[in-house]
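I hope you will forgive my troubling you with a question about protein structure. The record follows directly beneath this note:
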Amino acid sequence: MNLFNWNKNESPARDAKSIREELLYAIRQKLASVEGGEGSHIRGITLYLAPPPELRPEYEAAVYYGQEERFRQEVARIADNYAIDLPAQWTLEAEFAETLPPDATPVPGQPAGIWIATATKAAPANATAQVLVLQGEAEQARYELRARDGRINIGREKNVQQHDGFLRVNAICFPPASTNEANKYVSRQHAHIQFDEAMGQFLLFADEGGVPPQNKVKVKGCGDANAIKLQSTAVPHLLRDGDQIMLGHSALLEFRTEQS
């Protein structure tokens, strides 16, 4: 199938490659239509997928689920080809759901929808959230997050002097004196969470001590088979209710937007 000669009246694709082509085509069309194709104001793209359970493996393969950076690179290549100037830190999320959100733009012939967050059009806001500590020993078992909190640092030790001499304060702190084995593998500068006003969502960033080869940050969504490893300090992960966040070998957090 030729990506740019795809006919929306054709039967829905069933193999991963054809599904990928149709999804990329739809994303390109949506990007081109957003304020005349000017992409510098785009903050993030969410691709919602609601295939029947028996077809989920094909859709996971189509979007490189668990390796979203590969799919992001393909979208970036299409944007370059069509002179859509995306900002440096735009995000891409593929999210499986039982039903498509009503505000998402349907993809013709596919059980998929697209949401694009811009500087003037935010996704439905989750301005408060919680982080629960599932494994490892932190100062608290539960942390309340608010949009106005700014950058919420996560790491071992409360106060850490950085390379530039300034002090980093870890709001979510794993004490180094703890005998809990999981704490040993949490970096002093492991990660941070920040609320994005334009997207109306909390984003997770790996920091210097949380990216390979020094360490790792992995995220696994509720019901997902595979985890996503953050590979860069510059590309965030959009957090969803029920996401589990692994720091190092076994320290484990859970992100919640619904009160529990």
Remarks:
- Confidence is low (pLDDT under 50) at residues 1-11.
- Residues 29 and 37 are 9 Å apart (CA to CA).
